[in-house]
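Students often ask why we bother encoding 3D structure as a string. The short answer is that it lets us treat folding as translation between two languages. Here is a chain of 318 residues written in the first language.
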Amino acid sequence: MTEKLFYEKPQVKKHEKKEDYVFEQFHSVDFEIEKSPELFERVVELASMPESHFNDGVKMAEIIELLWNDISIEDNITFSEKEMKLSCFFHDVGKSGPPEATKEERFMIEQLFNTIYFQPKKNEFEGRNPKDITINEALDIEDFDNKDEIKKYLKTLTLHVVDPDNHKTNPEQLDLEKHTMIDFWREHDFWTYQLLSKYGDGNISEDVKIVSSTHHTLEGHDPAMIDGDIPNEALALELLDKYLILTLVDKYQAFIERGGKTHKEVIGILQKMINSSKEDGIMNQLFKDANEERVYNQFMKYLKVLEKHPEMAEIIKK
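And here it is in the second language, the structure alphabet:
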């Protein structure tokens, strides 16, 4: 008989404000976040939660500083170091939900992206893939006090779901019984682009919007509708994001125990991800023919840069 693992559901609390921390981080790259009040409020919400996604962006910005000499000498890097760090700070703002979400609705979304609040019980989820777990099943297992309100709200949302047979992304009304947790989690890059576009108040360049949001191309996502014309900065940020996820506990798939990998293991996994994306036709879907080869080669170049710096792992884990 399998021993049932002890599980204590964390108490869901409202945010403890961290305006000063967020303000300081953005001003360190000469961006006045207070001039975009909607974005400021959302980033503060994310920064104020335990296992903060904003803090992940801060760690990525620290790694940019470490790697910048290697990255900036590559072809077609037009960003300054500060612009690259700014994109790191913004890349997960979509985990606060879509632009029209109210404060209460944002908190529902933020719970589902946070491994302290949404922490599936080991016995129900152990060894299972979130590609196979419907949103409805996951919410029933988690059993939030506000579960019914969350379900009601989620059904009003649209998801962009990758069609692997036709190699394209289709917008679909969220269906709790059809769509899986990975379908829901992967929507955040679309929300990031929408938020930066709607609430940037003229303070955020289109290039920063694109690089901030375009960090799941290996999975077939093109939230900024750039039709394959992807900047190299976005490729570098995508690898950093995936490196961080694999080195820490994966905030999407914590119950698979995919996190905590060594530097060498992560480099090997990233290489397999890049190769699989090409072999499965995902790169060709987004980048087409000659551009596909350029993107593949550029991913591999940046992977070599990451491989030279095992100290990255210590920055992330500290």
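Translate back mentally: The radius of gyration is 19 Å. Keep this in mind for the problem set.
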